[in-house]
Design brief:
This protein is of the alpha/beta class and 323 residues long. It is built from 11 helices and 10 strands. Helix 2 packs across helix 8, helix 4 crosses helix 11 and helix 6 packs parallel to helix 11. The chain is globular, with a radius of gyration of 23 Å.
């Protein structure tokens, strides 16, 4: 027989919980969309974020690769997702800065349709060649291109990538005729370079680093302002005679527009801890990347500024989708 006092207390407890009450966030696994194929820099950064941020949040973060159209397909998916904190994006220079002016018909605005949380890392790009390719310096690479017009191909992670623009700019400033071979991600592109199917590639340093260290490709030059500490013997494109070829790729964490403030604050707080973790700092250093923590407000302004800069660069390069 039910005690009346027990029944009354249970009823009051039930009434105290609203019908639409939700469990504290996060109460289930989170999806992190990587808008490139596995194996590239965006994927590398995304998986580090998933591992360490997941530990901080006490939930699994599942990486979902959605490549295509200059990283805009996966990015568009996140823009349309529910702003509940369970769908996030490994944001990057391609989807937020380069793809919009390059394609011109995207269904998202890099600022208005997203909640930007923090910049996670940045790094230079690198020109690599198959070990059998005769050039060992950028000068020799350009000389080969000029001696063999429209026969020297370079692979990239796809049209609209920062490396697509970098390769196009080298073609422009060196007055050579390189051929762009776009892939659906840096991973498959690098496989073809290592196999000798494509002689060269412009890639972000984090994804190329292990293959350079393993001797599977040879680094010709990096696009940083200075030589990268992880690869001190690789000269910069600037010191190799091309001062205009200074560029960096960057990667961060974003979500759909209108993420609730408590979720944004929690993500920003935990990412600050993650990016200062000695293990993460070492992982960035090992692949030639650097941490660069920003507040949500700072990262939002950063994206806005990068979009403005990339719009000018895309116009100057004359790059077209798929070329």
């Amino acid at each position: 027989m039910i005690n009346r006092r027990t029944f009354a207390a249970a009823t009051l407890v039930g009434l105290a919980l609203p019908a639409n009450a939700q469990a504290p966030w996060p109460s289930k696994p989170i999806k992190l969309v990587v808008p490139y194929a596995p194996g590239g820099s965006t994927d590398v950064v995304g998986r580090v974020i998933a591992e360490y941020l997941g530990q901080r949040l006490g939930q699994n973060i599942v990486v979902e690769n959605r490549p295509g159209k200059g990283a805009s397909i996966g990015t568009s998916q996140v823009a349309k997702a529910a702003p509940d904190g369970y769908t996030l994006l490994t944001s990057n220079i391609s989807s937020f800065a380069i793809a919009p002016p390059l394609y011109g018909d995207l269904d998202y605005d890099p600022v208005k349709n997203f909640t930007h949380i923090t910049l996670a890392s940045f790094n230079p790009s690198v020109l690599v060649v198959n070990p059998s390719f005769p050039a060992t310096t950028l000068a020799e690479y350009v000389a080969y291109a000029k001696a063999n017009p429209e026969k020297l191909a370079f692979a990239t992670s796809g049209p609209g990538s920062s490396n697509h623009i970098l390769g196009t700019m080298l073609t422009l400033v060196s007055n050579s005729k390189l051929v762009h071979i776009p892939y659906r991600g840096a991973g498959p592109a690098m496989q073809d370079v290592m196999a000798g199917n494509v002689p060269s590639m412009f890639d972000s340093l984090p994804s190329a680093a292990p293959h350079i260290k393993a001797g599977k490709v040879r680094a010709i030059a990096v696009s940083g302002e200075k030589r990268n500490p992880s690869f001190p013997d690789v000269p910069t494109m600037k010191e190799s005679g091309y001062p205009d070829l200074v560029s960096y790729s960057w990667f961060g964490l974003s979500g759909p527009a209108n993420l609730p403030t408590p979720i944004v604050e929690r993500l920003a707080k935990e990412m600050q801890v993650v990016l200062k973790d000695p293990a993460v700092v070492k992982r960035w250093a090992d692949i030639g990347a650097e941490s660069s923590t920003m507040t949500p407000e700072e990262y939002t302004q950063f994206v806005r500024t990068e979009l403005e800069k990339a719009t000018v660069a895309v116009k100057a390069s004359g790059a077209k989708p798929g070329e």
